[in-house]
Structures are given as C-alpha cells and as structure tokens.
Task: inverse folding
C-alpha cells in the first residue's frame, strides 16, 4: 500500500506528521508492504511549514500512478483573515498551484483514496472538487466549506466514497487510525492505538443508515424562515434598476452589474461579471436591506451571501463566503 502525504508551503506540521507516524507504525505490524512518503506537487524540495517556517523534505512528486492513499494536510498560520500569513490565504495559494490539477485527476481514479486533515479539505473545495460531496474541516472553516457547495457535516471524520475528510487540529491521528482500520483491519489499528496509548475519537459519519428525525425546534425555525420569505415584498424598498458595482475582495476588485426588478411583488435579479450571467438566489427584504445568495466561479467557485442597502441612487453592502473576509460592495444605479 502506498501512502503519499502532500506538503505545500504553509502546511500544518501536526496534520502531516501525526498521520505519518500512524502509518509508519502500522507498517511495523503488517505483513503487507507499506510505503509512506512526503511528496509535493513540485517534486523533491524543502517545503516550509506554517509553524515558524520549519521545513520538511519532500522526497519527490505526487504520483497518480500509485494506487493507495493521498493525504492532504491543512495550513498553519494567523487567524487574522485579512493578513498574508492567514490560514485562508495559505490554503488559497495552495489551491492555485499545480496541486489542484493533480487532485482533480486523483479524485477521478478508482484506485486512489483521497483524504484530508483539518483545512486540507478547503484546498479541494476551493478548486471546485467537493461540490455535492459530504466533508468536514476545521470548525472555523465550515461556513466556507458550505459556500463552495460542499455538504458540511459536523463530525470528526466523514467518509464519502473515495473521499475521507477529518476536522480539527488533532484529527490527523483519528483519520490515519481509521484509514489503517479501513485498509488493514481493526487488529492492526488496535495495535497502533496501544503503541501510541491513544484511542480514535468520534464516529465516522457516512451517508448510510437511518436519517435522524429533525427536532421540533428545527422544524419551527424552518417554517418561520419560510413564512418570513413569503411575506417579503418588493414594494417596501426601491431596489429596482441596473446597478454598476465594485466588489473589493482580498485578492482584487471585481466589476459586477446587477439587474434588479420586481415580479409578482417580489425582487428578482441577475448579476453580470464579464460574459458570465448568474441569477440571484432567494432574494429577501429584511427591513431596508436586501439579502441574496449567488454562485460565482471567479476568483474561485463559491456561494456568496450578499447584504446590501440603498441610499438614493447609491448601493452599499458586503459579500461574504464562510470564514473569508467580507468583501465591500459599492456602486450606483445607472438605469
């Protein structure tokens, strides 16, 4: 069995080293030949982690011809979302390298199991690889995970076919122990647990078995939200018209033209960015503010949530995607 742990600039040390030790220990107890390698998309090189720039040696390229397990760690850095040393920025930088193309090919291969630790799933999500897939990440990134049209599941480990993700800074231990049990059996996994004096945490979530009943409180909240949406009408605030706007994102400014109108007393609309036209999803008026969701592909595949308000012929507001910094929106009515 071949196990490749992928390093990228800013990777989290614990996310990579904890699974490395688990898999190496499993090799001691197994008659099956097990190879554990640290690799990178760029090949053999020293790779700086996000922990005090401590470096590890990648022994070679990430190889897609080797059947087995590919494990992608998360990043380590500042929790200041606007800073260049922040975790979201490091994950996005990794997603913009050749690593995304390699992972895009890897996820298609039936003999490769793709796994991620903590924020590693966000690299796949930012590359548009988790749409419609169940996954988990660090709790601070669950909103962003959902914004990429993945299906966030609040569990320690989530298995979705050939994709296994884990959430939490220390989840690399749990993920690796589960993969050892999955691939080599519970007796080998148990032996590693005894060696480490550590027992795997949490239930492995899978989309199988009976679905839990929703609580009455959840049903009431859902019904209230639905009733509220139905009662919103477009005649309360004059949002109608075409709006020329600039959205200032952490990675540059986007020029977007919004076309808002009223149909059957409700706000409808679309957004144009270049040649791309995207409909607004579920626009709702709350007081003097208009809120909607919108799927975009630039600068990455995301579902953005907008909150805007009007001052005469000027429009102000923000767009938000999960834990990414809010992007300011400003513009004016042109017709």
Result:
């Amino acid at each position: 069995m071949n196990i490749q742990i992928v390093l990228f600039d800013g990777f989290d040390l614990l996310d990579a080293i904890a699974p490395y030790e688990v898999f190496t220990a499993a090799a001691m107890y197994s008659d099956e030949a097990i190879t554990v390698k640290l690799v990178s998309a760029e090949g053999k090189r020293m790779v700086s982690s996000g922990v005090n720039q401590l470096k590890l040696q990648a022994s070679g390229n990430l190889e897609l011809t080797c059947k087995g397990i590919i494990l992608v760690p998360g990043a380590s850095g500042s929790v200041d979302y606007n800073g260049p040393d922040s975790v979201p920025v490091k994950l996005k930088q990794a997603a913009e390298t050749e690593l995304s193309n390699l992972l895009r090919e890897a996820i298609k291969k039936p003999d490769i199991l793709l796994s991620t630790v903590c924020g590693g799933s966000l690299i796949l999500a930012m590359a548009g690889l988790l749409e419609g897939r169940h996954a988990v990440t660090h709790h601070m990134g669950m909103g962003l995970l959902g914004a990429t049209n993945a299906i966030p599941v609040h569990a320690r480990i989530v298995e979705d076919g050939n994709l296994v993700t884990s959430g939490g800074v220390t989840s690399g231990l749990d993920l690796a122990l589960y993969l050892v049990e999955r691939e080599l059996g519970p007796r080998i996994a148990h032996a590693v647990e005894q060696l480490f004096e550590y027992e795997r945490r949490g239930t492995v979530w899978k989309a199988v078995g009976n679905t839990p009943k929703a609580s009455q409180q959840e049903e009431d909240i859902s019904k209230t939200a639905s009733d509220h949406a139905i009662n919103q009408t477009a005649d309360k605030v004059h949002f109608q018209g075409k709006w020329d706007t600039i959205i200032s994102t952490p990675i540059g400014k986007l020029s977007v033209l919004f076309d808002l109108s009223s149909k059957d007393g409700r706000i409808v609309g679309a957004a144009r960015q270049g040649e791309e036209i995207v409909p607004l999803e579920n626009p709702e008026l709350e007081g003097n503010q208009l809120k909607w969701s919108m799927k975009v592909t630039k600068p990455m595949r995301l579902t953005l949530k907008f909150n805007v308000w009007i001052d005469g012929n000027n429009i102000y507001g923000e767009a938000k995607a999960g834990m990414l910094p809010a992007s300011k929106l400003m513009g004016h009515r042109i017709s």
